[in-house]
Design brief:
By secondary structure, the protein is mostly beta strands. The chain contains one helix and five strands; from the N terminus they run E-E-H-E-E-E. It has one domain. It is globular.
Length: about 100
């Protein structure tokens, strides 16, 4: 079976808001282009490897718990990254290899 890969651009969010009132994305910034992500990294338990990468890429603290991350969306389009229900950023699919 051939491994499937997606090519993504990573975007970081500038947020307004707080835990009580909720968050709103004020602006979005391109963080990195042409990131290759294997499809198998989008499901548990391999997802931990992707979360490690997300923490490094987005400059998040090393001590953040994996269980509090949530990666949602459709791999063919956009993957949204949240930590403790706070939006962190997204990966936008640029095509498959």
């Amino acid at each position: 079976m051939k491994d499937e890969y997606g090519i993504y651009n990573a975007y970081h969010y500038d947020l307004w808001g707080n835990d009580k009132d909720g968050y709103e994305v004020n602006d979005i910034y391109l963080l990195e282009k042409d990131i290759v992500i294997m499809d198998e990294l989008l499901s548990y338990p391999a997802e931990k490897e992707l979360i490690r990468f997300v923490k490094r890429l987005f400059g998040l603290k090393k001590g953040l718990r994996y269980a509090n991350f949530d990666i949602t969306g459709e791999p063919e389009y956009t993957l949204y990254i949240n930590y403790n229900e706070v939006p962190v950023g997204e990966f936008r699919n640029q095509g498959n290899m």
